[in-house]
Design brief:
Elements lengths: L11 E6 L6 H14 L4 E5 L6 H5 L5 E2 L3 E5 L2 E5 L2 H7 L3 E4 L15 H10 L3 E7 L7 H8 L9 H5 L3 E4 L4 H9 L6 H7 L6 H22 L29 E5 L6 H15 L2 E8 L9 H16 L3 E6 L3 H11 L4 E5 L8 H14 L4 E5 L9
Parallel strand pairs: 1-7, 1-8, 2-3, 2-6, 6-7, 9-10, 9-12, 10-11, 12-13
Antiparallel strand pairs: 4-5
């Protein structure tokens, strides 16, 4: 890192793992010490030790900036002090827990947004995250673990990283560390073994991290990554794709008020990123404007369109009485090659109407691939 000219953006290096305790923070701090020995100006902007003595020892000799104290609902919290880092203007700053959500009332909602500010100021950033915090994998993580991950990072943010380093550890070794009390204390370790820390779950998360890192390598085509490519076995089922990096691929995601639309957006965006494709989120209204819709429908559509925009998807609202024809006409005008639509649930009251629309799209769009995505949300989860 740190070879840019004055005035340029800082560089981002992400240490990616698949679970707590694999060694992300340890490796990040090890990198800080190496860079400091080479004469670079390095500080720790935020560090979460979790009581791990070997990790704490790695901070010896490194400058740790004070945290900002924030009071919320009668309690005091500590957050990264972004203004203090900007005032200090180091060459390199280590920021733990990239996916962290800041305390309400903070200038920015997410820590990754603070990191973007540091990068814009020309500061190189080293940071850590786990694979389950990647937005496009939210639904797969829920399916594998049963855990609803609330803190996520948009894929485009990670895509901007100059380097992604996989911090890998076999699941058996990680479970051994957990049982020895290296990761958590006894009470929290027992709780963890009921959640993420089961060998089949860890193995699935590890494979996802391996595949994601391989994809990051492919998309960059350059850069050192700590990954043995021979260890990759197969693409995950949602990546049954052809011709990666085809510049002619264009993806359309159909936006409706259905709660399953968020999962549809993630799925379509993940495919678009894999193919390096343009991506459109398209909503078709039968009314003159979105303001004319019933409140619940309007709010749901606005929420989904905003979510698409946050993932850097171009959101488009069309008017038309025939939803299927409007979608296919737009797709043809914009040379769309793949369309993603929600598969209507079997118990849906307007099932016949929705199925008619979906089947009409399939019939009209013979020159493009149409993927119907079933709602796999668990009961009670949005």
């Amino acid at each position: 890192m740190s070879d840019e000219s004055p005035g340029q953006k800082g560089k981002l290096k992400v240490f990616l793992g698949y679970a707590a305790g694999v060694g992300k923070t340890y490796q990040m701090l090890d990198e800080c010490r190496r860079l400091q020995r080479e004469g670079h100006d390095v500080v720790i902007g935020y560090f979460e030790p979790h009581g791990r003595q070997d990790t704490i020892a790695k901070t010896e000799g490194l400058e740790i900036l004070t945290r900002r104290r924030v009071e919320y609902r009668g309690r005091e919290f500590e957050e990264m002090d972004t203004p203090a880092i900007l005032a200090r203007q180091p060459k390199i700053c280590a920021v733990d827990e990239f996916a962290h959500t800041n305390v309400p009332g903070s200038e920015r909602t997410k820590r990754w947004e603070d990191v973007m500010v540091l990068l814009e100021a020309g500061i190189d950033v080293l940071t850590t995250m786990n694979i389950q915090h990647l937005e496009s994998l939210h639904d797969q993580i829920l399916e594998i673990t049963g855990v609803q991950v609330r803190e996520t990072i948009p894929d485009w943010v990670v895509k901007q990283a100059d380097e992604v380093v996989l911090i890998d550890l076999p699941p058996q070794a990680l479970l051994n560390r957990l049982q020895r009390g290296v990761i958590y204390g006894p009470d929290k370790a027992h709780q963890a073994m009921k959640g993420f820390f089961k060998e089949p779950t860890l193995a699935a998360l590890r494979e996802m991290a391996l595949l994601q890192t391989a994809h990051e390598v492919d998309s960059r085509q350059v850069g050192p990554v700590a990954l043995d490519r021979r260890s990759l076995h197969a693409r995950s089922t949602d990546e049954q794709l052809t011709q990666p990096n085809d510049p002619h691929e264009r993806i359309l995601i159909h936006i409706t008020e259905s709660p399953a639309t968020a999962a549809l957006i993630r799925r379509g965006k993940r495919v678009a990123d894999y193919l390096n494709a343009d991506c459109f989120a398209v909503c078709v209204l039968r009314t003159a404007s979105i303001a004319d819709l019933p409140k619940a429908t309007r709010e749901a559509l606005e929420q989904h369109l905003d979510f698409a925009r946050k993932l850097h998807i171009e959101a488009i609202v069309l008017q038309g009485q025939d939803v299927a024809s409007s979608l296919v006409d737009f797709a043809r005008r914009n040379r769309v090659t793949q369309a993603f639509l929600a598969k209507p649930p079997k118990r849906s009251i307007p099932l016949l109407t929705k199925m008619h629309m979906v089947m009409k799209v399939v019939r009209l769009a013979k020159d493009m691939q149409v993927t119907l995505v079933a709602d796999r949300r668990r009961a009670g989860n949005p």
